[in-house]
Design brief:
Length: about 260
């Protein structure tokens, strides 16, 4: 397949072309029962920069097509870059298969159907979810979708950083990967929803934290993020600015960002 981009003819399409890149699926691997790693290779990575925590928006339907104009919410879906290799001109995303086959949105359908050689158009990398290396210690809290973002952020902090994590998954057979050598509490919600998750907040409440606040990174379902922030600020006394929350999804909303 040719990876050359066709020059855009109309001016609006040319503006959009500055902001997206093309690649193709290079690998697909199940890393946990509900986690799929998809490697996207693109010669255009030479001109793109990346920092741990940034995401891409995968163009599943063209926003400039008639379909995209009529259904703008059914065009782009966001995935954090899990690994980025400038040398291989490739990056990985880790997609949580949150619903059974045939259910869920276009992002889930794209990931389930991904095959080596599929053309992928993506926007980014972009975003401002980033580690604060100057903090005395670091706390990561979230469910499966957040874990995809946490992985590169924890690795960027290096082995000497004091890192704690509270990670939720459906059960013990389906735990998403997290870099080794850190203090990690794993909790399982069973059949309960990941939205407004008391499971996660209750687990956090049981974690011993240093007296001085550090940097907290919280991602996943929007209301769960709010509950975690509320706990850290109101119960543990952390300053709001030390708790970075990034809502990734919430029930009833499609393609949150
Ligand atoms: C900055 C950012 C980074 C992200 N990084 C990742 C990542 O690395 N890996 C990853 O897997 N996801 C990630 N997400 C979340 C992902 O973009 C959403 O889950 C997205 O909604 C999936 O698109 P969809 O088309 O399948 O569902 P949508 O059409 O967007 O949503 C349809 C419905 O499905 C439900 N739903 C959507 N997502 C979930 C979920 N995760 N769990 C349970 N129910 C859900 C909701 O009820 C929603 O109304 C990220 C989101 C953001 C904003």
């Amino acid at each position: 397949m040719s990876m050359q981009r066709t020059p855009a003819r109309n001016p609006l399409a040319r503006v959009f072309a500055e902001h997206f890149a093309e690649g193709e699926v290079a690998e697909v691997e199940r890393v946990a029962p509900s986690m799929l790693r998809i490697r996207i290779a693109s010669p255009e990575l030479d001109r793109l920069s990346w920092e741990p925590g940034r995401h891409v928006r995968v163009q599943i339907n063209d926003p400039l097509s008639l379909y995209g104009i009529v259904r703008p919410k059914e065009t782009l879906r966001t995935y954090t870059v899990w690994e980025f290799s400038a040398e291989d001109r490739a990056f990985d995303v880790l997609v949580h298969l949150y619903a059974p086959e045939g259910e869920g949105g276009i992002g889930l359908a794209w990931a389930r159907a991904a095959e080596v050689g599929d053309r992928v158009v993506f926007w980014g990398p972009r975003g401002d979810f980033a580690v604060r290396p100057e903090a005395g210690h670091h706390l990561f809290v979230g469910e499966e979708t957040a874990t995809a973002a946490f992985w590169p952020m924890v690795r960027a902090l290096g082995g000497g950083a004091e890192v704690r994590a509270v990670l939720e998954s459906a059960d013990g057979r389906d735990e998403p990967p997290f870099p080794e050598g850190h203090s990690v509490v794993r909790v399982h919600r069973g059949g309960a929803p990941a939205a407004s998750s008391r499971t996660l907040v209750d687990a956090l409440a049981g974690v011993d934290l240093p007296d001085a606040p550090g940097a907290a990174y919280v991602a996943g379902e929007a209301r769960t993020c709010q509950m975690v922030r509320h706990h850290l600020v109101s119960v543990r006394g952390w300053p709001r600015e030390d708790v970075r929350t990034v809502p990734f999804w919430t029930p009833g909303k499609r393609g949150l960002h």
